[in-house]
Amino acid sequence: MAGWFMRTVAVLTASLSVVSAHQLWHDVNRYDAHGNECKLREMRDVACSRLCVADLENCPTSLQPSCPDGQRFCADGECHDECTDAIQARNPCHCSRSGGKLPSEAEALIPCTAIANVTIHEFHPWNSKVDIREACGAEANITDQSSRVGVWDSTWLGGDITAVWAECPAAPAPNYTYAEGYWLATFAVNGALAVLIALWSAYKRWAERGIRAAAAANPDSVKGTLAASASSDNASDRSKGEKIATREKVTASEEGKSDNENSGTKDKLIQGMSLRGYRDQILGTACVWSITLVTVLWICFLGVWTADYYGSLPGRRSGVLYSLSYESDFLELATFLILWGIVFIILIALFVLKPHLRNYFRVQTMPSVGNFVCVVRPLHEIKMMEDSTNWLQLRINLLSERLTVALSRDKERTTCPVERTSEGRIFFTYQCTRYVFDEHIQQYAPFEFDLGTNHHKLIAQADGLTAEQAAYRLELVGPNFIEVKVPGLFKAFVREFVAFFYIYQFIFLWAFYFYAYYQVGLVDTGVALLSAAIKVALRMQSERRLKRMAEQEEDIMVRRDGKWQQLSTKELVSGDVIELAAGAHMSCDCILLSGNAIVDESSLTGEPLPIRKFPIRIGDIDYDAAGAGKLSTLFAGTIVSQVQPVTKATDSLENARVMALVKFTGTMSDKGQLVRKILFPNPISFVFDEQMRIVVFILVLYAIFVVIMAAYLYKGNSVAIAFYFIFSVAQLLSPLLPAALVIGQSVAAARLRKKKIYCVDPQRIMTAGKVQIFCFDKTGTLTKEGLEFYGIRGVDSGRFTEFGSEVLSTNILLQQATASCHAVANLDGKLIGNPVDIEQFRASKASIDSHPEFLDAILPASESNLAKMHIVRRFEFVHARASMSVVMLDENTHKMHVFVKGSFERIKAIANERSVPVDYDEVCANMAREGCYVLALAHKVLDTNEPTKVGALSQDELESGCDMLGLLVFKNMLKEDTGKAIAELKGGSTRTVMITGDTALTGIYIARQCGMVPKGNRVLLGECRTSTDEIKWVDVDTKNPVADIGPYLAELGPDGFPTTELAVGGAAFEQLCASGAIGALLFNIRVFARMKPAHKVKCIEQHMTRGTTAFTGDGSNDSPGIRAAHVGLALSDGEASIVAPFSSANRSVMSCVELLLQSRAGLATSFANFAALICYGQIMSGMVKMSSFYFSISLTQNLWMLIDGAIATGLMLTISLSGPAKRLAAHRPTARILGPQMLASVGGTVLMNWLFSALAYVWLFQQEWFRCNEHSSAEADVTKWWLLGDNYESSIMSFVATFQFINNGFIVNYGYLFRARWYRNYALLVVWSFLIAFVSYMLLADPNRVGCAFRLNCGTASVLESLGYASPTWKIEPYNSPLGHNVIPRHSRYMLWVYCIANMVATNMWQVVVVNGPVRSWLRKLRPLRRLKTKL
After folding, report:
1. Nearby residues of 315 by Cβ (< 8 Å), 6 or more positions away
2. Residue 1315 pairs with which residues in a beta bridge?
3. Residue 610 has what pLDDT?
4. Coil, strand or helix at 1115
5. In this prediction, what percent of the chain has a pLDDT beyond 70?
């Protein structure tokens, strides 16, 4: 390492002697604007070299030394009291050389007194030394100096030569001896680390020899998997009620799958997981800490070198520039570059090796014996709106994928410490799930306990577990507690800053700190920190919210060893029996064994109304958690609002307590699965991320071109090239870019929150901005939450009676059915249950007895003749059956009545045929067409009046043989703003679709009422009885069957789309999916009816394959669909629903419009910031950098700070404040940074700016005041960039580029389609106007304090006075140019200002007319970009 370091420094410093650039296409200061040769310029205050002689007598008279009395003239050319050795050593005639390096001819030379600075009236830049000698000789009254005065190291004393000009040659560049303390310490520390790592590598290879041999013989023996593991309890001591503990099958958990569909083994883990065991060793741990320490030391060393550059080191080096490099700026710069490169490589290496580094310094073992287990699982990236049509994109993606695999970034590696239970079992916790080592199969496995799949087995466990069984299960599955770790502020920032882009920012901004640009570095650092703070705050806020929802612990009554005892919910395990109490927070998934419960599921599913839960029935009935069993399942995360013990029941357990059987705990519960998915999501890749790779690739190529140009124009000056390359890369790919994107999302999220739309995943805002299809549930979403009771129509002897609006005016059976056939409960005086049931019950005017003898007791209305009704048995409504039924005991007659209620299709299927009116289908269909929600009632009287006998009958037996009783009719009323919302969505080029569990005819009616189906369009309904039957199509208006829908779909309207819409039922949808016909008809189907929750998910997934899809709903049956969609919006009263990235407390369909408005604005804002920063980089690295390279000039230091610190940052922040448009535009904002709109916007602006910049120099070279006053690059030191702005070339570039920078932030604010019109962004207008006025003042005003602060239109004070300007009252550092000023004549200033304004007008017109105006509209009509070709 030391040798490499020495060689590198030597090469760099050797190249530093060449420090000038050259201009290729013109001779500097050779000809004026008319083609005449330039007059020679006057050079003022030129310093003269010392005249050296062997004897002071040979000095010219004017240079003869004259010292005060008591002083002597010494070899340093000054008078002193005593000429000490130190003073004598400072002899200027020795040119800082001594010993063997001093020529013998120079040993006797001593200086004459100094010559005053001279003015050269005709200065020849190409012969400057001769001009200076002649002027200095004339000042000293030396005659015939060409024959009498020589030049140091060229013509020495002798003959006629009596004096020598001390024009000292460049001193040899100093270099390190590498015996300096700091280098010795550096080599010692890094050498020790290298030795330590070498020792560890040798030891590791020796220690792992056994496992390598095992791996060679059987690779799977050292790489544990989670396959085929099972463990059972010891039958001798765990016999009672204990089941086999089986592993969780490892399968792919795909995004969007319904988590409610739990198989027996809870298939939720990721397939392909493998385990590797590791063991800590002291030497390896020492290596890790040493690497960490050495990395910190390298960063500190870089900081020390930066401080040394500014002379800020403490102690004796304080105030001394470049003290560590022998006061050589060249050596200082070269050393910093090497140190900077080393730190960059170290940080990148640590980032790349981060997943492997810690475990490399552990000894690999079998997973069963290590004290750490590394879980390796493949990463499945979710790609949204993938662009797979671009050839370059495909190649870049392929290269990226190969690089990802090569760097092992295609898999996630998580190292977990191995722990021991109190019984000595070893386990580790991965993603909140415990994996226990199974001695039988010698593998780790996550466990769950099979409680049984039918009601008989579940009820048999009502006595609970023994303490021994519970302890065993707790040992295997762990505490019933999902711990969400929210890091502290420091750790949160550390977690944020380990991302690659922050490393990029850190290392490039450090170059800013070093190279006299620390002010802008601090500003950019502040913006990056602000961006990070926003991201950290949003993430911590989301994690705290999730922590509140996930972590649950309270005391609860548990039945253990046959006794009830109070335990913490953390101690619950599968198989425990608990007592439910009002107000309890459910911490596990349970099956209700006895009694009734009312639970609030809003925080889990978004369901706004409490849900009533019923106990499982006694008998050999299969338990279906996703079907009928859902009504008996209480889920973790819900709140028990009310409990009702049942001490007298016919088909369920009777108990004075409301008991539930614990089914799943921890992450195995439904809530736990959701929490785990939120905590450990699959990475999401947006089309922006895909195309960003191409942008980076192009920008890297461009940066290489910039470096080549710098190398060519700077004649191989390696240090200047390196620094300009660093700055070019930082300007091309701005460190502010992540902040720009995050701020756009953050502002949109904040605005949504003000609208009571809460976002838990801000990244989804960009996806929401591209929504093409919006799917809606109907009831409670498009329509009001509660249906209105419309009327009742009875059936008598197979005929319909007259339609009536009052239940009490009908016959007794209809009154009894209306009052009893429901599942309504009373919660603190409020009716709870299905909204339809509640409206039905209210229509009956009955009330609920709070002290029932059986399940429920109904008290009839006071004005009716009914007796008290006892609900002996109830079968709750199940989507699969589309019906419910009750057994009612009439207290007067003591007869048992069976009432069945359900969809009119279902009741017709089970009712006696003779009791069904002939016109039944027609009457029901007509009501549905009118938007009515129609339920049918059936009835029969049982032969027995013994409740105990009723319990033995199945539901099918009870419901068979019923007679049609009548129809209950409800009105499905639209929400007031539904029509407006649908119209705005369709106007915003968003297809609207209805997915409902209601009847198709009702759905069609609502779709027509809200405008989802356009007026005048024909609707064909396709239905079939089962998914294997043929679909029959019917015109819903004419009721005529349609044999072939093809001709109807071929009839196109003025918009080019069919005038016929389709609607299908659930069975028809299944048939279309099974046959593969759904793809061709998907965008013709407007209404999907009779859809179960699983159907909704499948329907949404079908739409997701065709475009970006959103889904909104309000109930628990909608939660699977909300989770499945690209964008899910839950209409919930809660602040946030755990199932959805977005939730709205407004419960209005306009929330969907607001979500798209804000998301489109956020997406457009993010891309506007991106475009502005790309334009910034292209201007900076385009004409500015090319001009800098060609002329060897630079913007002044303060102007750089104005551009980077105020213009770029200020405009980026104010761009983000642009509000959303008032209405949804007919197009969505682009999400492709390489799309035509972005390329036209950025490309056109950049080309125009380049053209105006180039023409500005053409204009400059035509000005008489400029020609012959050009900046000579041959006289410039390009490593000192801050001294290269005192010339006309830099002034022109400064003004033109600064106006362009200001304009960039303004032109991206155009486009009223997605954001408010540009003049509504008042903050941007204020900042933009101020900057324009500020720069205009600097350009147009005569030399003033502001302009001079930026060294524009200013000059050295004496020069300004000679030009006729007032003497400055402020301090001006002398100008670094022979002219001494860069004041542009007043007339030319106004011309330049008009030119800059014309540049701004041209780029603004390009944006207004071409990018966002009529040209774009014309091109869109000529070549439309609508990728989703469907009727809206």
Report:
1. none
2. 1220
3. 74
4. coil
5. 88
Token digits for 1424?
């439309």
Beta bridge partner(s), residue 364: 278
Distance (Å, whole) CA 826 – CA 830:
5
Average pLDDT over residues 1094-1122: 83
Q: How far apart are CA 16 and CA 718, in angstroms?
A: 7
Phi and psi torsions of 1295, nearest 5°: -70, -45
What are residue 565's DSSP bridge partners?
Answer: 558
User: What are the pLDDT digits (tens) for 1131-1177?
Assistant: 876 544 566 788 888 888 898 999 999 989 888 888 888 888 778 77
b/e map 1129-1167, b = 16+ CB within 10 Å = bbbbbbebbbbbbbbbbebbbbbbbbbbbbbbbbbbbbb
Place of tokens 């405009």: 1211
* Sign of CA pseudo-dihedral 437, 443, 445, 448: negative
Cα dihedral value 759, 762, 765, 766, nearest 10: -170
How far is the C-alpha of 710 from the C-alpha of 729, rounded, in Å?
A: 13
Q: CB-based contacts of 481: which residues, under 8 Å, 6+ apart?
A: 551, 552, 553, 569, 570, 587, 666
1399, pLDDT greater than 90: yes
CA dist., res. 50 & res. 64, Å (int) = 13
- Spatial distance between the Cα atoms of 250 and 10, rounded to a whole number of angstroms: 59
Please classify residue 818 by burial: count the beta carbons closer than 10 Å to its beta carbon, then call 0-12 exposed, 13-18 middle and 19+ buried.
buried
Alpha-carbon separation of residue 322 from 298, 319, 336, 1297 (angstroms): 19, 10, 11, 34
Calpha distance 1320→79 (Å, rounded): 73
Q: Please, which residues bridge with residue 825 across strands?
A: 832
Question: Is 90 exceeded by the pLDDT of residue 26?
Answer: no
The predicted pLDDT at position 16 comes to: 38
What is the C-alpha to C-alpha distance for residues 1269 and 1379, in angstroms, rounded to an integer?
7
CA distance 470 to 466: 6
Mean pLDDT for the chain overall: 81
Amino acid at 569: T
**Tens digits of per-residue pLDDT, 1296-1328?**
999 998 988 888 888 778 888 888 888 889 999
Q: For residues 503 and 515, what is the distance between their CA atoms, to the nearest angstrom?
A: 19
**DSSP element (H, E) containing 1103:** helix 1093-1104
Torsion angle defined by CA atoms of residues 898, 899, 901 and 904, in that order, rounded to the nearest 10 degrees: 90
Angle at 1204 between CA 1203 and CA 1208, to 5 degrees: 80
Q: Is the pLDDT of residue 762 over 80?
A: no
Closest CA to 838 of 818, 824, 820, 858: 824
Q: Is 1341 exposed, middle or buried (0-12, 13-18, 19+ CB in 10 A)?
A: middle
What's the CA gap between 539 and 1417, in Å, rounded?
40
% of the chain at pLDDT higher than 90: 18
Token duo for residue 900: 């069945």
Question: Does residue 1175 contact residue 1303 with C-beta atoms inside 8 Å?
Answer: no
Which of 346-355, 394-403, 987-996, 1389-1398 is predicted with the least confidence, judged by mean pLDDT?
394-403
Q: 1335: which 2 tokens?
A: 């720069």
Give the other-Cβ count within 10 Å of 622's Cβ.
10
What is the average per-residue pLDDT within 800-804?
A: 88
The confidence score (pLDDT) of residue 1191 equals 78
Tell me how far apart the alpha carbons of residues 431 and 414 are, in angstroms, rounded to a whole number. Answer: 9
Fill in the amino acid letter for 1177. G
Q: What is the mean predicted confidence (pLDDT) over 76-92?
A: 89
**Angle value at C-alpha 232, between 230 and 235, nearest 5 degrees:** 165
| Contacts of residue 471, Cβ cutoff 8 Å, sequence gap at least 6 | none
How many Å apart are CA 306 and CA 593, to the nearest integer? Answer: 73
Strands 382-384 and 757-759: unpaired
User: For 427-469, what is each residue's pLDDT tens digit?
Assistant: 998 888 888 888 887 788 888 788 888 888 888 898 889 999 9
From 723, 725, 734, 745, select the one nearest 696 (Cα to Cα). Answer: 734
The pLDDT, as a whole number, for residue 256 is 36
